[in-house]
Specification:
The complex is a heterodimer of chains A (about 110) and B (about 110). With about 110 residues, chain A is mainly β. In chain A, about 0% of the residues lie in helices and about 50% in strands. In chain A, about 40% of the residues are buried. In chain B, the strands form two sheets. In chain B, strands 2, 4, 5, 9, 10 and 11 form a six-stranded mixed beta sheet that branches. A five-stranded antiparallel beta sheet of chain B has the order 1-3-8-7-6, with no helix packed on it. The chains are: A mainly beta (about 110), B mainly beta (about 110).
Chain lengths: ~110, ~110
C-alpha cells in the first residue's frame, strides 16, 4: 500500500547541531509539505514543494531548509538547531489540490 | 490576528452528547474547508471536506459552512469515546494548483464513557 513515512520518529539533539528529518512518500504525489505543531499554534507551514527542484518558504521557514531531488522525498534540515525548534514535525503530501496525507510525525527535542 | 481561529478547549462531554466544534476566519476568499482528526501521537487525517457554503453529512458527522459569517462548524452526534481526539479545521484558497492549507489551532475533545 502507498504510504508516507518519517524518520526518525524521535530525536534528541544539542543546540547548534545540524539535524535532518526525512520524509518519504510512495503515492507519487507532486506536492509535499512540512509543518511543525506546537501547543496553542496548531499546524504551521515551514516549507513546501510542488515538484522536483521546486521549494517554497512557508509561514515559519527561518532556520529550516528543504531540497527536492526526486518525487518521493523532501528532507527537512535544521541548519543550527535552537531550543525554539523543539516541536513535533509533520510531513504531508498531496496530488495537486487534493487531500493532504500526513506522516506519523517526528518528535524533536533540542537541548 | 490569526487567519483562522479555533478554541483549543479542552472540551469534555459524556458519551452520547452532541458536540459542536467551530472555527472563524478572516479571509473571505477561502473556498475549501476541511476538518482533520488527530489522535494522540498520530498524524492528522481528513474527516470532512466541503466547498463553499452549505452542509455536508457523513454518518454521525456534519460539516457546516457559513461564508457570510466566516464561520465553520463540525457537529458530532451520539459522540463515542473513540471520537476523543484533536480536531483541526483547515481551509484553502481557490488557486489553480496549490494545495496549501491554513490550519486552526485545533480543539481537543474528550468523550467520557
Amino acid at each position: 500500500d502507498a504510504e508516507i513515512t518519517q524518520s526518525p520518529r524521535h530525536k534528541i539533539t544539542e543546540t547548534g547541531r545540524q539535524v535532518t528529518l526525512a520524509c518519504h512518500q510512495t503515492w507519487n504525489h507532486n506536492n509535499m509539505f512540512w509543518y511543525r505543531q506546537d501547543l496553542g499554534h496548531g499546524l504551521r507551514l515551514i516549507h513546501y514543494s510542488y515538484g522536483v527542484q521546486d521549494t517554497n518558504k512557508g509561514e515559519v521557514s527561518d532556520g529550516y531548509s528543504v531540497s527536492r531531488s526526486n518525487t518521493e522525498d523532501l528532507p527537512l534540515t535544521l541548519e543550527s538547531a535552537a531550543s525554539s525548534q523543539t516541536s513535533v514535525y509533520f510531513c504531508a503530501s498531496s496530488k495537486g489540490t487534493d487531500t493532504q496525507y500526513f506522516g506519523p510525525g517526528t518528535r524533536l527535542t533540542v537541548l | 490576528q490569526k487567519e483562522v481561529e479555533q478554541d483549543p478547549g479542552p472540551l469534555s462531554v459524556p458519551e452520547g452528547a452532541i458536540v459542536s466544534l467551530n472555527c472563524t476566519y478572516s479571509n473571505s476568499a477561502f473556498q475549501y474547508f476541511m476538518w482533520y482528526r488527530q489522535y494522540s501521537r498520530k498524524g492528522p487525517e481528513l474527516l470532512m471536506y466541503t466547498y463553499s457554503s452549505g452542509n455536508k453529512e457523513d454518518g454521525r458527522f456534519t460539516a457546516q459552512v457559513d461564508k457570510s459569517s466566516k464561520y465553520i462548524s463540525l457537529f458530532i452526534r451520539d459522540s463515542q469515546p473513540s471520537d476523543s481526539a484533536t480536531y483541526l479545521c483547515a481551509m484553502r484558497l481557490p488557486s489553480s494548483n496549490t494545495g496549501k492549507l491554513i490550519f486552526g489551532q485545533g480543539t481537543t475533545l474528550q468523550v467520557k464513557p
